[in-house]
Amino acid sequence: MSYDRITVSPIAGALGAEIGGVDISRPIDNATFAEIRRAWVANLVIFFRGQTLDDEALTAFGRRFAPLFRHPNLVTEGPYPDIVRIRRMPGDQRIVGEDWHTDTTCMREPPCGAVLYAVDVPPYGGDTLFANQYLAYETLSGGMKERLSNLTAVHSDITVAGPQAGRNKHRSTKVREDADWRETVAEHPVVRTHPESGRKALFVNRSYTQRFSGMTAEESRPLLDFLWEHATRPEFTCRFRWEKGSVTVWDNRCTMHIAVNDVWEFPRIMHRVQMSGDRPV
Ligand code: SIN
After folding, report:
1. Cα angle 12, 115, 112; round to 5
2. Where do the H-state alpha helices sit in 90-211?
3. What CA dihedral angle connects 258, 113, 275 and 170, to 10 degrees?
4. Domain spanning 71-275: which CATH class is it, in words?
5. Pocket of ligand 1 contains residue 259 by CB under 6 Å
6. What is the pLDDT of residues 93-106, one digit of tens each?
7. What residue owns the CA closest to ligand 1's atom 3?
8. What is the CA radius of gyration of the chain?
């Protein structure tokens, strides 16, 4: 795949590429953005270094991919309610995204992606890992693919938000846990077809997938455990080392990610927007 306006340098065999030659804090012409989008769909997650994004520039860049998605549980006050401020402060023991997950799949139409911008990062640690869910699907046996082909799964935010989840203890970034909070539930196919690439991807994750439709959680668990283990095999992943000013854009339709919870004494401050997506099919 050739690019004229940007450079695209893969960082791992499975997914992930660093993009160069563009300042995303400034308006981007359509031809350059088309190459960025092509690189995003082809590499599943793309990275930029040395950027300076104020709130206006971050939201404007996210909007180039799709209209912005407002998170139901991570609430931001102020003039940019679509930006979630993900803060880890010294002493925090828990963080946002500490389990392998695809974002916000409790929604009927989960976000198609996210832009994450590093405002302040620790001198070491705090990396983010991504996993290629096309590869996770493609490396299953024919028998398993057949078994999954007609399954749907129930996704819910019951373990990540609300008063019963208890996520706010020991964590600076708070989720809604007020008495008015209500569970959000959606059913999705276990294997989805990406609307742009046409490829099939495994679509179950530890944070949101509760069970297969028509089965109990206990009945579902052995197969879900197998799929989650399989989906995050090291050879399906890449690992991104953040610097201040780094930006990551992941395709939430065919990846999972995890924030590594390995840094206690330094702040880590990230600003994130999510982009609206389609109903998985
Ligand atoms: C997330 O799960 O969206 C946060 C990832 C990170 O902070 O690295």
Report:
1. 90
2. 133-138, 142-148
3. 0
4. alpha beta
5. yes
6. 999 999 999 999 99
7. 97
8. 18
